[in-house]
Structures are given as C-alpha cells and as structure tokens.
UniProtKB/TrEMBL annotation, chain B:
Species for this entry: Microvirga splendida
Protein name per Swiss-Prot or TrEMBL: Carbohydrate ABC transporter permease
Membrane topology: Multi-pass membrane protein
CDD domains: TM_PBP2
Listed PANTHER family: ABC TRANSPORTER PERMEASE PROTEIN MG189-RELATED, ABC TRANSPORTER PERMEASE PROTEIN MG189-RELATED-RELATED
Length: 320, 275
C-alpha cells in the first residue's frame, strides 16, 4: 500500500508544480463524481430543502419551516394516512424478516450440506424469481389468486385445504399479508445466496472439531455456525429494511396507487407517489411529496445508524 | 454408496420449494399458448393440438409497441452498464491506486449511495429533468441509473483492482507509460471478470425498474418493457390471452439470459457477499 504511488512518480517527471493536485487523478474521478453528485446527492439534498417550502396554485414557493412535517404528523387529513402507511410498512418488513429470511436461512443450511448432489441446480432455480421484474411477479400472482381463474382454490382442494381459500388480495384483512408473502416468495433467493456464501466460508476444521468434541448437528448449528454467520444476517437485515421501506412497484402493480382495499396495503412508497402526483380529487404537491420523501429518508437513516452502531459493532465484538 | 434417509428428506424439501418457486412462472408460460376456453377449463394442462393458439401474442403485437419497448429497455440497460463500468472503474482506480488528500472522505461520500435509495430524491430529479427538457427521453433514465449504480460498482471494482498484481503497473511506469495508458491498456482489460458481478447488481434492477420509467419517461414511445407491460395489462385486463402473452414476452428474454449466464450471476452474488 505504501510503496511508490503513481502521484509521487508522476509529480517528479510530468507535473512540474508539486503542490498542485495531480491532474490525472482529477480526470479519473471527475465523471463519476459529476454524475453521482448531480443526479443522486444533489436531488436528495434538494428534496430535503423543498420539504421546508410550500407552494400555492400559482406555483410560487415560500419558506414554511417544519410546517409540512407538522401537517404530515398532526393534520387529521394527512396523519391518518401517514401512520397507516408507516404501520403497514413495519408489518411488511416484519413479515420479510421472519418469513423471507427464515426460509432463506433454512434453504441455505440445506444447500450447504457437504456433498449435496444437484446443489447448484437448486440454487439457480430457486433464485430465478428474484431476477424477474416485481411488476411481472405481481401480475402473475394476481392471476393465480384470482377467484375467476380458480386455479388457487383447486390446488388447495387437491391438498385438502380448499376451505381456506378466499379473495385474499381483495379483503382488507388479508391483502397486506398476501402482498407481503408474494414479495417474500420473489426475494427469498437473496438471503439464501448471501447466507449460503457465508456458510461456505466457515472452515471445515471448526465444524469437525465441534463434532469430535461430541456436539450434535443441532449444537453445531446453534453454537458454531449461527454465531459465525451473524454478521451476514446483519447485512441481510439491513438490506431487507432499506428495500422494504423503499418498496413501491409491487403494490402499484397489484393494487394501483390507491393501495386498496381501503388503503390496507398502503406503504410509504405508494403514499409518497400519491402525495407527489396526486390521485382522484387530490392535487399532487411536490413540496408535500418532498416532505414524505424526507420522512422516509430519516426512517431509512435511523435504520442504517442502528445497524452500523448497534448491530454491526456488537456482532464484530461477538465474533472476533 | 448407500443413500441415507436424511438425504432423501433434504432433496424432497428442496424439490418442493423449487416447485413452489417455479410453478407460478411455468403456469403463466403454458397458459399463454392456450385458448381462452382451455385456460379456464384445464389451467394445469400443457397446450395440445386442440388448445394451442397464439392469439394472445397476435393481439399484443397488434395493440402495443412491444418491440419498441424491448428496444428501449435494451438501450437503457446496456448504455447504463457500459457507463457504470467505465466511469466506475476510473474512479475505483483513482481511489485505490493513488494516495491523495481527501481520498477516504471521497470514498465515504461515494458510499452514501449504496445504502440511501436515490428514489427518495425523485421530486428534485423530476424538476431537474423538466428544466433540462429531458422528460420522456431515455437519456434521463440512463443518467439516473448511472448515478444509482456507480457507488456499488466503485466498491466492487475497487476491491477487484486491489487484487491485480502491482508489478504490472510499476513496470509500465518505469518504462515511462502515462497514467492514462496504464489504466486504459493494462487495468481496464484486466477487470473484465468483475464486470459480471457489477452486472448482477446494476443491470437487473435497471431492467426491472418501474419507478423511474413511470416518473421520468411514461409516454412518447419511450416506455421500457416493464412499464409497457404494466400499461398494457392495465388496458387489457379482461383479455386473458393478451395478458398472459404479454407476461410471457416480458419473462422470456430474462429467463433465457438467466439460464445462459446463471453461473456467472450466482458466482458474482456469492463472491460479493463474502467481502
């Protein structure tokens, strides 16, 4: 790392002024920094700024401080929808954490068994739905669960569970759960792959040593493998968190921007879209949209900070 | 070698889950080629001589610009990927190879985009694109996707560049080769294996995205395939043949590419996870 670097070699024979920032480094960095700053960082900062303004019908904007957030959290016209979306989003996330990451962990455990035949075929096939567009997946499940087609009830009947079927996507009580499980079904491949890779990285010696010491398969899992893959489980959790609190496509494809029935599948992403673009009688508002986006940004940042300073540090202390 | 009963249970579990993962997709593909009557009478049956039809596909091609949407998606994805790899490699090279003031700070600055979703800046992005007159152009999408893909690409490519032996570039420097030539003639050709990994993380989300096409390029024949399918199904929701055919058309290219390249994709994903 600390050997002769290019800048020192260069500055002696090409760049005459030593104190100047080496021009070639700037050339290498400039395109990435320009595009990234202009189309990623600046819009995020500008969104936060916009959330402090209010616009009227003429398009003129005036600074209103934190009033938009007050409206969002207190005004009965807004706060009900905001808290509803946030609660639904938390449920959406909880279902992913338990079901998606649970199944992902289970599949990864099975796939990492030594000398498993056909392991790569299973991995490839189970990962396949993850590659498809969320929109396509949404429509596929909408068709399958459609009582008109009747394929879901007849399949359930075949395994003796015919009585359970209902219009799951259409009922207020089951719509959010159904949508969450569709998303789980699609993305189970990601935790599966990440945890699988982590399990493969555990040296065989450790597992052998534990077995020689008389640990059964369950103790090996619980006391040796699980602690060693905890950092990966942390990564999986934060990736799930950010993806879930940023989700939009699936609900929009299945339920539209209104996230029906009666907003029961409304999450922050669809709420943001409606606020920004408007729907039915309500006119879209860029400044209120910016306020919702800023609130989402704050929620995501809180999650990331909890991960970085709470979970990740403790995990590292635990494992090393 | 005898097969232990435990192993059989493992295979049964994995096969059942594989069926659960693939069944719904398979169901759409087979029913897209069946008559409306057969779709409802026998949804699980394969199309046969009496039920085989391509009427759904005919209707899709007659009523929408699928070819165009496909071309739009291809353009956006390929151009974004090329730019992300090229620009990302340049930045990754500068950050890993040279020591200079603010190096760490810049790396941290670029890392923000890995975790914070650029979608949350959509209000400002749309305003900017309106001012730049880029609404309903593929350029708008490409610019946003490059900005979105760069942070992770720089991280992955940086780790890869560090593994390239130092001797090569030092030898070149002794021969007086310029820093630009070292990068473009020596380093860039060497990073091609990392492109597969970058592709997993950037191409797939770009191809599948609905949000930015919906906001930045919803009309004027600039729709991507994902948005095109979404709009088409919205209009023809009761025409089961057409809906199933449009879904099949959207699935097929991804399916073929995935099965061809899955080895690289899966390797890229697991390699990325190890780091």
């Amino acid at each position: 790392m600390t050997d002769l670097t290019a800048s020192s070699v260069q500055s002696t024979d090409v760049v005459p002024a030593r104190s100047r920032f080496p021009i070639h480094i700037a050339v290498f960095l400039a395109p990435a920094l320009a595009i990234y700053t202009l189309f990623s960082i600046y819009p995020l900062i500008d969104t936060i700024r916009l959330s402090l303004y209010a616009g009227d019908e003429t398009g003129a904007r005036s600074f209103v401080g934190l009033q938009n957030f007050e409206t969002l959290l207190m005004d009965p016209n807004w706060s009900g929808q905001f808290w509803n979306a946030l609660t639904n989003n938390l449920i959406f996330f909880a279902i992913h954490m338990v079901v998606q990451n649970g199944i992902g962990l289970g599949l990864a455990m099975l796939l990492s068994l030594p000398r498993l035949t056909g392991g790569s075929v299973y991995r490839t096939l189970i990962f396949l739905p993850t590659m498809l567009s969320v929109v396509i997946i949404g429509f596929i499940w909408q068709l399958i669960l459609n009582p008109l087609w009747g394929i879901a009830p007849s399949l359930l009947k075949a395994v003796g569970l015919g009585g359970l079927f209902g219009p799951w996507l259409g009922q207020e009580s089951t719509a959010l759960l159904t949508v969450s499980l569709i998303s789980v079904w699609q993305f189970v491949g990601i935790p599966m792959m990440l945890i699988y890779a982590a399990l493969l990285n555990i040296p065989d010696d450790l597992l052998d040593a534990a077995t020689v010491d008389g640990a059964g398969p369950f103790s090996v899992f619980w006391f040796v493998r699980l602690p060693l893959i905890l950092p990966t489980l942390g990564v999986v959790s934060i990736l799930t968190f950010v993806a879930n609190f940023n989700a939009f496509d699936l609900i929009y494809a299945i339920k539209g921007a209104l996230a029906g029935p009666n907003f029961s599948t409304d999450i922050l992403g669809t709420f943001f879209y409606r606020t920004f673009f408007g729907f039915q009688l309500q006119v879209g508002s860029p400044t209120m949209g910016a306020a919702v986006a800023t609130a989402m940004l704050i929620i995501i940042l809180i999650g990331i900070l909890i991960y970085l300073f709470g979970v990740q540090r403790r995990l590292q202390r635990h494992t090393f | 070698m005898t097969v232990r009963p435990g192993r059989i249970a493992v295979h049964i579990a994995l096969i059942l889950y594989t069926i659960l993962a693939l069944g719904p997709i398979f169901l759409i593909l087979i029913n897209a080629f069946k008559t409306r009557r057969a779709i409802f009478a026998d949804p699980l049956g394969l199309p046969n001589a009496q039920t085989l039809t391509t009427i759904g596909f005919d209707r899709v091609f007659a009523n929408s610009d699928f070819g165009l949407y496909f071309f739009n998606s291809m353009t956006v994805t390929v151009v974004s990927l090329v730019l992300i790899v090229l620009i990302g490699a340049m930045a990754a090279w500068a950050l890993t190879e040279y020591r200079f003031r603010g190096n760490t700070l810049l790396s941290l600055y670029l890392a923000i985009g890995i975790m914070v979703p650029i979608r949350l800046g959509s209000v400002s992005i749309l305003r900017m694109m309106v001012e730049l007159n880029l609404v309903n152009t593929l350029t708008a999408l490409i610019l946003v996707y490059v900005a979105q893909g760069l942070p992770l690409a720089i991280l992955i490519l940086g780790e890869f560049i560090q593994q390239i032996p130092k001797d090569l570039r030092d030898a070149a420097r002794c021969d007086g080769v310029s820093e630009y030539r070292i990068f473009f003639s020596i380093i860039l050709p060497l990073i091609s294996p990392a492109i597969a990994t970058v592709a997993v993380f950037t191409m797939v989300p770009v191809w599948n995205d609905l949000w930015f096409p919906l906001i930045l390029a919803p009309g004027d024949g600039k729709q991507t395939i994902t948005l095109g399918v979404q709009q088409f199904i919205g209009q023809y929701v009761t025409d089961w043949n057409a809906v199933l055919a449009s879904l099949t058309l959207a699935i097929a290219p991804v399916l073929v590419l995935y099965l061809l390249f899955s080895r690289y994709l899966v390797r890229g994903l697991t390699a990325g996870a190890v780091k």
